[in-house]
């Protein structure tokens, strides 16, 4: 199969490299000349574990190419995937589809022979219809089928998720398109991944419903954490106690500072907007959004109350900036409202992140950055763990305490055990756990 991947970001690059690894001929296209130039030099523009090796192997094998010009790869492709961004539209929270539609028009101008055009980007229900209309309008003789194939990978575990998915959803009623997509994903049938064929609109809906459900699960346990704090229960044990019930499941039940990242915030917002356009109130999802927004803002207050007073003029050390470990992605990271909240309180902020500091500097230019977690803690009046990078789990607690001017630790990911922290003499606060439970 010849595949063109339009958009070489977190999803496009991982999907393109994995398809090449399955044995397909893949060309990843991106408008960002810097990104393509880096890839042509053998550099990976994002941090994703294992991606460097996967890309290098498949480039070397001649199965994976990069370009800024979609003409040739689209012309020879059996399948063209659209994996461009669909960020929140400024002002109203709708998904901004301008990149998807621009890509559709560009594809229409150069497509040749029967080609399946597939939206991998997360798009509102009905976008496939519009992509098809745009292509037919721009090129009435084009022989295309437009399908939806939403992506469920998680940054930080993207290659594994792509190669061992729980399911693959393909939305199309076109027999030829089903055959092409069946062939593209055939290598995965060895892993017994169910390939689920649905209508196009259903596939588009599945992606938003999945993300909204996961965001709801996180928000639910966050509220239970708040209550646990008040009543002296331990939310980690509550999560385990309910999660071991197969009907509930243990995943996405980790209480924390509120969900962030490149998908959940924008996709839940977009789903609420899609629903309103159809006169439907998704009140649960609306509540999830409101609760989550309040929660992220409340985290700075949690730090000042752990410190026990005003943070004006005090230094707060922040460990972890990316929205989760094993990625450099800072989009909608909970660290952003936390840090801005601390700055608003008059605190000075010094931060460390193993890989995200370059990206973070763009979002948070007014703070100090430190290359080492202990240096970050040095002389600080309080320390906050925001992202649960593995290296923070193994910090030398004695050394950490000696670095801090005041031994206040606020652990927004429940990385440490309250009893260990108490034994080391920290003033310790975490999420949904009694101080010394
Ligand atoms: P991204 O911003 O990392 O990458 C998008 C890329 O598309 C950018 O490099 C941009 O330059 C390029 N682009 C935009 N218009 C283009 C055009 N006309 N031609 C060529 N390139 C173009 O975005 P992402 O995180 O990879 O997300 C892509 C889509 O996948 C979004 O809809 C997102 O919601 C969805 N998604 C993301 C994830 C995730 O974990 N990041 C997971 C599942 C689904």
Automatic annotation (TrEMBL):
Please give the family membership noted in the entry: Belongs to the UDP-glucose/GDP-mannose dehydrogenase family.
The positions making up the signal sequence are none
| Designated name of the protein | UDP-glucose 6-dehydrogenase
Give the catalytic activity: UDP-alpha-D-glucose + 2 NAD(+) + H2O = UDP-alpha-D-glucuronate + 2 NADH + 3 H(+)
Domain spans labelled UDP-glucose/GDP-mannose dehydrogenase C-terminal: 317-418
Output the InterPro entries linked to this UniProt entry: 6-PGluconate_DH-like_C_sf, NAD(P)-bd_dom_sf, UDP-Glc/GDP-Man, UDP-Glc/GDP-Man_DH_C, UDP-Glc/GDP-Man_DH_C_sf, UDP-Glc/GDP-Man_DH_dimer, UDP-Glc/GDP-Man_DH_N, UDPglc_DH_bac
Q: Which organism is it from?
A: Bradyrhizobium erythrophlei
The molecular function GO annotations come to: NAD binding; UDP-glucose 6-dehydrogenase activity
One GO term (biological process): polysaccharide biosynthetic process
| Active-site feature positions | 263 (nucleophile)
Residues annotated as binding substrate are 152-155, 207, 252-256, 260, 324
Q: Note the SUPFAM superfamilies from the entry.
A: 6-phosphogluconate dehydrogenase C-terminal domain-like, NAD(P)-binding Rossmann-fold domains, UDP-glucose/GDP-mannose dehydrogenase C-terminal domain
Write out the pathway annotation from the protein's UniProt entry.
Nucleotide-sugar biosynthesis; UDP-alpha-D-glucuronate biosynthesis; UDP-alpha-D-glucuronate from UDP-alpha-D-glucose: step 1/1
- As recorded in UniProt, its EC number(s) are 1.1.1.22
